[in-house]
């Protein structure tokens, strides 16, 4: 029971972070389950099962607060679902010993991306550019959905920053639209894991704990979209994800103790440097930092 309570709090924290960054729930939750020795397919299946509930509540909450562009949702959700189904079925077919380093590798890269992305700041919206079109959204959804299922997370870390970089949509609309479309991705990924028999390895109390925590936090997260210190949060979470999955990869490679120490020393220096850079920028530009969530949350 204490372990399930901890998982529920992880679900709450992950959903709050996801609501502030437009990404993070799957990456954080899957990293935790891999750390608890769940095999990659079962871990990703568990997270996506929980996400059916959390994304439904999250999407409804974002809709209530006016954070959704339904044209974007309609164009990105279907290819996202197709990619998620393919990725889930493929992951289910890979032996667990081979899949774990692969999944942790994807999560590590996504964590590193968070570190770099939120250390650098964010580009403003360009009002002269038209809204994103299908030729841009369809391949984006397909790639993000595939990575999301195979890595246990990736929908937000791929879809949200890419839409931000296009400068074509208000960031709060990006967060809401990506969150709403993720409902279809979660359902499709779960179906793919079902066809691949990965559902058999799911620990249902863990799913319930993640679901309860995420559902509790989803409405709060939608409200907090403009209020969380997104750059600091993004760098902090990115460092945690990188460290957690680096440990898994080094273990799979049977790295020696010196390699462990050197690797984590380098990661620690990079993380502290990124946090220092963000904190210094915030201190030097308090006015900009105060408005930053409205510009950067995605």
From TrEMBL:
Primary location: membrane
NADP recorded as keyword: no
Keyword Transmembrane: yes
One Gene Ontology cellular component: plasma membrane
Keywords, alphabetical: Cell membrane, Membrane, Transmembrane, Transmembrane helix
UniProt topology in membrane: Multi-pass membrane protein
One of the Pfam families matching this protein, by short name: TauE
Coiled-coil positions: none
Residues annotated as transmembrane: 72-90, 102-119, 174-196, 202-225, 232-253, 259-279
Intracellular or extracellular location(s): Cell membrane; Membrane
UniProt-listed InterPro entries: TM_pro_TauE-like (IPR002781), TSUP/Inactive_protease-like (IPR051598)
Signal peptide start and end residues: none
Similarity remark: Belongs to the 4-toluene sulfonate uptake permease (TSUP) (TC 2.A.102) family.
This protein's name: Probable membrane transporter protein
Natural source organism: Stackebrandtia nassauensis (strain DSM 44728 / CIP 108903 / NRRL B-16338 / NBRC 102104 / LLR-40K-21)
